[in-house]
Amino acid sequence: MDPKLLLAIVATGLMAFIGILTETMTNVLFPTLMEEFHIGTAMVQWLTTGYLLVVSIVTPLSSYLNHRFTLKTSFIAAVVLCIAGLLLAALAVNFPCS
Questions:
Q1: What are 77-92's pLDDT values in tens digits?
Q2: Which of 6, 36, 39, 65 pairs as cysteine with 43 (C-beta 3.0–4.6 A)?
Q3: Does this model's pTM top 0.70?
Q4: How far apart are CA 24 and CA 41, in angstroms?
Q5: What SS3 state is found at 96?
């Protein structure tokens, strides 16, 4: 078996695992988020809904982006967006409610 193919299979498996782990983590984290931000279950469920909505948009879009941009450019953009999201989440002091 070609080593590149084996690495691609392992990388795909790891990313799938991380995706499932993230979805599970958001559900397990509900009670802590509700207590920390003083919000109800209905409001905190929007976190999971938003995450799954972004995943459902990015998944088909990734094929187009892979053809349009180089792998290096796509990877750098993904890392920068991930870090920006982490910083935004770390700086959140409240949960905006209407």
A1: 988 998 998 899 888 7
A2: 39
A3: no
A4: 16
A5: coil
